[in-house]
Design brief:
It is a single chain. With about 55 residues, this protein is mainly α. The protein contains two helices and no strands. Helix 1 packs antiparallel against helix 2. The longest helix is centred in the last third of the chain and has 29 residues.
């Protein structure tokens, strides 16, 4: 569950960052995808850490 929430939050963050930098739709999509992957990976590590601790 953490992975999905982190991925969506990362996509929103990436799209917003691209828009603030004046990017077009393709730039927003690329930034959203890259940020979603990176933040979802961090969410995966968080999920693994929570699962092993509890």
């Amino acid at each position: 569950m953490i992975v999905l929430a982190a991925g969506l939050a990362g996509a929103a963050l990436g799209a917003r960052r691209a828009k603030l930098r004046g990017g077009g739709r393709a730039d927003m999509a690329q930034y959203a995808a890259a940020h979603a992957i990176a933040v979802a990976l961090l969410g995966l590590f968080a999920t693994i850490a929570v699962d092993t601790l509890f």
